[in-house]
């Protein structure tokens, strides 16, 4: 399978000298920026009449779109939640001698597009030619980390060959649509419009979901331009500036946009709140606002940067992943979570999936303050009542966390995903274990986490059924992590994580107070039932191959490997019918191997090898979540070449458009895969039973790699070179850990020889 690389290789920048009109949407996705509060695709401020996807999004602002199916079944959610494209506050059209600048049709020279990942600033510089005369245009923007409501844009126009009349129209455009809207449906209604300000509100819905109000207000500062006019309509306001620019001189416009919403303010105060913020930053120059923003990016990078020596492409890849993750979420607001597309597109509705707990959680646990990971846990705790309701709708006890949600209520209406892919319940429980095991802090577990664990365990206990003849418990009618098989019986991973959850809940109950147990209505009879399920769960197993089988009938399929496919067949989800995919043996993402990754201390190295060698060759990795798990296992098995191959696929998945779908937006929640692959894969970091360990290897073409991790109030710096590995205790008390299965104490710095894998 080939790939498409639009940008140059640079360790800190995403840059190009080409405007890719054919792949404009892909280019827009790759230069998306955000600050956790809001963000946008890499759209141009000025008009672009060619095909593109205009998108500006605000965290936590969404709409419940009615589920419309003619085959309604009990248990279907009433609505599908979707992130909604909001006011286009970037819109700033440029006119030269009365003609609009349009990069789709204008003759371009010296085009330069650059996203600086170190500073979070997007920059464009190009020359256009009109009637034989040239004009240089420079555009810079950032979404502030310091003032979360602020997006700042700086535009300059230099007339290179002759005097010119320059007009710039700075607008706030509320007449926007979602690309995934039914019948070009409009989600916004006008509330108030005035000079430099616009307020809109989501249209009413019948589901009791609060309507969101969004206020956008702007200030425009200019040089060599004079105010010409204001234009105000219900859904758009604009300011026009006009001036004659002499040859060689420059006209500039600085646009400051403040976005406030009813998530943070009372509806009647959203506009006044925005104006107040705009007034408060008025004393600062543009460069001062930018510098404060850049300092915060520098602080984030100090703790989270990963360096790779000798491989600029993969160095760029890992930094791109970290940059986009931090642009999407940094844990400041525990009402928020991480959508699979972040602020880069509308696919997947912008909602929360199991990706957060299974793949994103460990990254934030190790690279940010522990409160960030704790906020992710509390997000689910606050939605526990809705999880009970989700299970009740299916006629089941306990709590079923949603597959897709904004508020804890399931809002996805594909039955095979929504109500068969119940393994996600286990990932919610695993995150509680992961936090407790990694931090050593049991307070969340005994105060709040136990409520979640008990709810999930009660669901599993009701969802299983007992096979009297075989005297075992089974779970039928599920979809495992491998979504290329639906409605299967006894998916091994689902059965395994169900049993593990019951075990962990029983262990956790020993730590809580008697009063807490009473408040949870835990009885001896209930815990005995759970233990009986643990002792008698059925796991499909093949004695001949000595492997756990993905589900009951998997081995009945015609077993092939990806090598048996033609390149014309890939990706399967774009080339084959769904019927053909479901009947095939090909695996979308790690399934059995997902469980072996989670519970690595439950399996011997030989068991891991057998399972990897059987399942990986059948895996097409058409889920962005898949390559990282396989990289980690390949590295642990010392299969260096395979680990590097899969690492490159996860680290540069979007930059090289491996799955031919990045034009819809980036794969944000899988971007932790690059970090996981290095830290847990090549460096072999594990935490089993509260014991930290490392077992580093280094790929052949790398000279070295390094990273920081937080661990139990310590900050460690790990540097792996070809001849030596060092672990430095940057902050905190001395720490006992395992290095290559040998117990060591790190007081300041520990060095040892790096294991070489050919």
From TrEMBL:
Gene3D superfamilies: 1.50.10.10, Glycoside hydrolase, family 65, N-terminal domain, Maltose phosphorylase, domain 3. Residues 685-746 form the Glycoside hydrolase family 65 C-terminal domain. Substrate binds at residues 354-355, 588-589. The active site is at 483 (proton donor). Residues 319-675 form the Glycoside hydrolase family 65 central catalytic domain. GO terms for molecular function: alpha,alpha-trehalose phosphorylase activity; carbohydrate binding; hydrolase activity, hydrolyzing O-glycosyl compounds. This is Glycoside hydrolase family 65 protein.
């Amino acid at each position: 399978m080939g790939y498409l690389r639009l940008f140059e290789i640079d360790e800190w920048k995403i840059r190009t000298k080409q405007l890719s009109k054919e792949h404009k949407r892909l280019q827009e996705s790759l230069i998306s920026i955000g600050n956790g509060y809001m963000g946008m695709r890499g759209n141009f401020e000025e008009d672009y009449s060619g095909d593109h996807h205009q998108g500006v999004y605000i965290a936590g602002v969404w709409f419940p779109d009615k589920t419309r199916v003619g085959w309604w079944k009990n248990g279907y959610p009433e609505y599908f939640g979707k992130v909604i494209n909001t006011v286009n506050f970037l819109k700033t059209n440029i006119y030269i001698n009365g003609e609009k600048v349009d990069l789709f049709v204008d003759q371009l020279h010296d085009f330069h597009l650059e996203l600086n990942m170190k500073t979070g600033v997007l920059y464009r510089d190009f020359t256009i030619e009109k009637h034989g005369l040239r004009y240089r245009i420079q555009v810079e923007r950032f979404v502030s980390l310091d003032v979360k409501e602020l997006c700042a844009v700086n535009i300059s126009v230099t007339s290179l060959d002759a005097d010119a009349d320059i007009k710039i129209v700075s607008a706030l455009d509320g007449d926007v649509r979602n690309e995934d809207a039914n019948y070009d449906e409009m989600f916004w209604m006008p509330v108030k419009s005035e000079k430099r300000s616009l307020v809109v509100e989501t249209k009413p819905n019948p589901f009791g979901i609060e309507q969101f109000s969004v206020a956008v207000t702007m200030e425009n500062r200019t040089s060599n331009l004079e105010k010409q006019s204001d234009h105000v309509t219900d859904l758009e306001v604009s300011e026009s500036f006009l001036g004659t620019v002499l040859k060689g001189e420059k006209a500039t416009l600085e646009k400051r946009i403040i976005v406030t919403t009813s998530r943070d303010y009372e509806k009647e105060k959203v506009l006044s709140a925005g104006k107040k913020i705009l007034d408060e930053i008025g004393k600062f120059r543009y460069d001062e606002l930018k510098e404060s923003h850049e300092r915060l990016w520098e602080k984030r990078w100090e703790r989270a940067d990963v360096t790779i020596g000798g491989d600029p492409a993969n160095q760029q890849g890992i930094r791109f992943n970290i940059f986009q993750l931090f642009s999407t979420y940094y844990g400041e607001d525990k009402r928020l979570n991480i959508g699979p597309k972040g602020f880069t597109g509308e696919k997947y509705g912008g909602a929360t999936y199991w990706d957060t707990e299974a793949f994103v959680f460990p990254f934030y646990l190790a690279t940010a303050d522990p409160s960030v990971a704790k906020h992710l846990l509390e997000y689910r705790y606050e939605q526990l009542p809705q999880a009970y309701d989700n299970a009740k709708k299916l006629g089941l006890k306990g709590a079923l966390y949603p597959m897709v949600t904004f508020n804890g209520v399931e809002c996805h209406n594909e039955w095979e995903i929504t109500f068969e892919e119940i393994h996600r319940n286990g990932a919610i429980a695993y995150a509680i274990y992961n936090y407790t095991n990694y931090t050593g802090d049991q307070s969340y577990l005994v105060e709040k986490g136990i409520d979640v664990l008990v709810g999930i365990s009660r669901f599993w206990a009701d969802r299983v059924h007992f096979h009297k003849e075989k005297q075992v418990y089974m779970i039928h009618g599920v979809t495992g992590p491998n979504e290329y098989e639906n409605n299967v019986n006894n998916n091994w991973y689902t059965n395994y994580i169900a049993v593990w959850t019951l075990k962990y809940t029983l262990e956790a109950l020993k730590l809580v107070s008697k009063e807490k147990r009473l408040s949870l209505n835990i009885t001896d009879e209930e815990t005995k039932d759970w233990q009986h399920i643990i002792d008698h769960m059925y796991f499909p197993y093949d004695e001949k191959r000595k492997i756990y089988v993905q589900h009951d009938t998997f081995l009945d399929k015609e077993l092939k490997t990806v090598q048996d496919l033609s390149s014309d067949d890939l990706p399967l989800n774009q080339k084959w019918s769904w019927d053909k995919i479901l009947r095939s043996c090909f695996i979308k993402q790690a399934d059995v191997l997902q469980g072996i990754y989670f519970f690595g201390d439950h399996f011997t190295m030989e068991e891991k090898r057998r399972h990897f060698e059987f399942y990986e060759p059948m895996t097409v990795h058409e889920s962005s979540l898949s390559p990282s798990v396989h990289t980690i296992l390949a590295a642990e098995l010392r299969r260096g070449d395979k680990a590097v191959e899969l690492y490159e696929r996860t680290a540069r998945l979007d930059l090289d458009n491996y799955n031919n779908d990045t034009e819809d937006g980036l794969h944000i929640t899988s971007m932790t895969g690059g970090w996981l692959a290095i830290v847990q894969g090549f460096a072999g970091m594990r935490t089993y039973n509260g014991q930290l360990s490392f077992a580093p290897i280094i790929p052949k073409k790398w000279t070295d790699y390094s990273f920081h991790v937080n661990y139990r109030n310590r900050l460690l710096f790990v540097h792996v070179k070809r001849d030596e590995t060092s672990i430095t205790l940057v902050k905190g008390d001395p720490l006992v850990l395992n290095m290559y299965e040998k117990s060591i104490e790190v007081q300041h710095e520990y060095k040892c020889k790096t294991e070489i894998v050919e």
